[in-house]
């Protein structure tokens, strides 16, 4: 797994310089192919054709199909990283108790919309389907995306509690409870019903209302 991550984050195999436009095109094409066909049924020749590059270019940029698959899976975690960064910024800007709930509502709404978006759900199904073949990759995806989001919410609540804006004994446990109540049942249903529609604006608001009514992290 460490080798796969080095290939994703650094230069290409054998120190080759990355061709970013070609690399981005390959990742886009590979994402569509893997989501449609799974890992085993997807060939690098088909990915190369869809990306309008040579098969050798795919190998030059990623080394092999396993590394390319890892790039596709871990690329989705950028959304979780962005959520964590925005959450930290938004909650640190809160200075009064009456600002806490509006800020938290907006963040929870974005969290639910991201987790339940069709593309994120499709990648999650793919990771679960291939977890037996790529256990380390599945664990890394979980660490960088679902677990990282809960950790970010917990850290944000902990900061609010430290500043006396909320009263919480265990902010990280509250964050985990919020995650489950907010998206748990909806996520469980969506994973088993790939044709289910993404929640609309009204449904997202209802999910946030329910989560805050059940967990009450505002103190």
UniProtKB/TrEMBL annotation:
GO biological process, one term: negative regulation of DNA-templated transcription
One GO MF term: DNA-binding transcription factor activity
Classification via InterPro entries: Homeodomain-like_sf, HTH-type_TetR-like_transc_reg, HTH_TetR, Tet_transcr_reg_TetR-rel_C_sf, TetR_C_Proteobacteria
Domain HTH tetR-type: 20-80
DNA-binding residues (ranges): 43-62
Pfam families listed in its UniProt record: TetR_C_7, TetR_N
Nucleotide-binding in keyword set: no
Domain of life: Bacteria
Keywords for this protein: DNA-binding, Transcription, Transcription regulation
Protein known as: TetR/AcrR family transcriptional repressor of mexJK operon
């Amino acid at each position: 797994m460490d080798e796969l991550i080095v290939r994703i984050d650094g230069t290409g195999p054998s120190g080759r310089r990355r061709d970013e436009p070609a690399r981005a095109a390959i990742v886009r094409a590979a994402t569509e192919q893997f989501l449609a066909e799974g890992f085993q049924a997807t060939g690098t020749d088909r990915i190369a054709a869809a990306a309008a590059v040579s098969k050798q270019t795919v190998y030059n940029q990623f080394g092999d199909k396993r590394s390319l698959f890892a790039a596709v899976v871990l690329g989705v975690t950028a959304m979780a990283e962005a959520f964590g960064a925005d959450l930290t910024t938004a909650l640190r800007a809160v200075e009064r108790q009456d600002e806490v709930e509006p800020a938290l509502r907006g963040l929870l709404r974005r969290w639910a919309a991201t987790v339940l978006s069709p593309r994120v759900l499709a990648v999650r199904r793919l990771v679960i389907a291939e977890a037996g073949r790529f256990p380390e990759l599945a664990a890394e995806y979980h660490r960088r995306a679902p677990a990282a989001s809960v950790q970010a919410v917990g850290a944000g609540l902990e900061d609010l509690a430290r500043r006396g804006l909320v009263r919480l004994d265990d902010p990280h446990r509250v964050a985990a409870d919020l995650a489950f109540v907010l998206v748990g049942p909806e996520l469980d249903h969506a994973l088993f019903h790939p044709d289910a529609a993404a929640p609309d604006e009204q449904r997202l608001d209802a999910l946030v209302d329910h989560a805050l009514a059940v967990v009450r992290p505002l103190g």
